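In keeping with the milestone schedule agreed at the kick-off meeting, the structural modelling team has produced records for the first pair of proteins. Each record is given below as a sequence line and a structure-token line. The laboratory manager (R.T.) confirmed that both were archived under the project's standard naming scheme.
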Amino acid sequence: MARSIVCKVTPVASARRDISWCFQPIFVWLRILGIDLNPRNRKAISIYGFLMLLVGTWAQFENTSVIFWKLSLPQNDTHALNISTSNTNNWNIEVDFANHFCLMVFVSPTVFYVARNQWQLLWNLIVNFDSTYCQLDHNQLRKKLSIGVVTLLLEISSTLYALLVILPDFKRESSLRKFVTVFAFFAKILPISSLVWYCYVAWLSSLFYEAIQRDIDRTCEVNKEELQRWKCSLVLAGEVVNGINECFGLILLISVTHFVVDFIVHSFYLINNVSITSRFRMGIALADMLRKLTMFWFVTCIPTEILHKASSVANSLRKINCLGMDLRNQVSFLALDILQSLPRISALGYFDINFELLPKMIGTTLTYVIILYQFHWSEESDVNQST
């Protein structure tokens, strides 16, 4: 009754301050990149998005093939890209480019497919929860979601710096090669944008569980109507998490793998070249690794937050007073059911996305960096003995 009175008093404000308004910045940004998430404009830019996808994929194939061709040339060739005589360094470079190629070529079509075929169902669930069980402050929500804009700006800045680094060699290329290189460099913004999009939706689902917990904590004595409302809300929140898995499972699988390989490769770069790299470039490289590590932390931390808040809902249910043994048993069964089927976000079912991935990634990185450095040190020893 109170909610209907508010709607009558402020109809304009409620129409504007909904969940769509909170997601408007990411909708607009992805639409610029050719991905339309607004259900009202499903066919508005489909041709533009398809062309962006084709050109981006072609640019990645072209740019990566040219790079691998230059890496295969002899050291004395004018077109050679071998910056080191060490095979370990060259392997590291090849893995680095192949890793970026896989991220951009596989994630971009997946994002396009999800936006066209799967996103609408997930968005309907989100809107349904927001309209039937809304306890969120949309103004505060939009301000907090603006953190994702900082991530995108940092990614664009990193791409511009990478282009500035290759600028001396870039000037000698043909106009077609310049276009392909620039487009290939900026194509990585779409996969990173899809991760920001995922973080928005996943964090919102954690707020849904938090809203349910607040409602339970405010209840002194539960009745059947309130219990039924909680059951429906929990089912809806669980369907949102399942929708996240269906939409972002493959994206997370490729992206998490990319982050791990990227962290290993660039850690070896830093350790191996620390003596020949200027302080400025070393600082930029460390800042870039910190940026990627922070992004990885957000990707893994938010699912852990969903898990904790769902567990808090079960704990709150155990504390409330019930009128009658039958109602108490229903509440206990509901709390037990939540704990037995906690919402989890996974990478296409291969592994769960949670905070435990961060120390695993650090441990894996240290292991492989040590192995790579042992190979590199063995090569240098063989060269010194032969001379």
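The second protein of the pair:
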Amino acid sequence: MYNNNNNIIHLPYPAVTSRRLLEGNGAICDRLLSHAKADVRLSTPVTTITRIASPSTSAGEQPMMTKYSIKTGEREEEEEIYDGLIVAAPLQLAKIQLINFPSLEEQGDYDEGHYHRTVATFVTSNMVDPTFFQQHDGFDPKNPPDILAIKPGDQFSSIDTQDPASYPGSSSTTSSKEEEQEEEFHVHKVFSNMPLEDDTINRLFGKDHHGRQVHPVDWRAYPEYSGFENRRIRPLNIDTLPGGAAAYISPIEWAASAMEMSCIGANNAANIIAQSLQKMKHQEKQCEL
């Protein structure tokens, strides 16, 4: 659960029948990319995307396919040319410059707002300290509680116990005694709007987490929805001119932010690109006849 502090509460709790992979759910993406033989380049920030307009044609002829030039921070002097383009990162965060996109320029400036900061802190600990919540009878270690904060001024938004597919260091050869010792510890995910101070972590989990892992993840999780109804958001199709094949996924987050919404946006973007490319190839064949 994360709290946007403007009366909007987000609950990312999975269904009871949800499943996860031993290697982590990210392995699904790894397998799909491997199956598609995709050329994946991590830690390669894109700086500019330039639309290369189709050459002018004589009257009655169909326009040729538009191309897109990509430049990265590592090789600013070099460019790579592509037939289609899908932007899958918020432009106001990625700082990517779009050049020569008339479909966007003719509509004027966009006010897409900001993204909300969320910090997820993962703490390996035996249990949340019940005294922090004035629960002097303690919590059931076999059924750790999920805790939600309801006041904007609270130091955290939620505490959720993660149930790993396997505990750190566990294997098929782990003895029963070792398994019992490992199962005394849980991984707790704490959502907050700011990084947690060490003192807060100590008060939440007591001293038993010392020597165990504390791993914070700080990111811009979803849009700031306050006042979103007055914002001018970029469209999904960012190149509507003949021969264009470019789409932008992130605007769908302004309707709702979730993995499912991102999948819908990605599907819509893929359909736009596929239909545009198929249309242009068909027109090129017609011109050759």
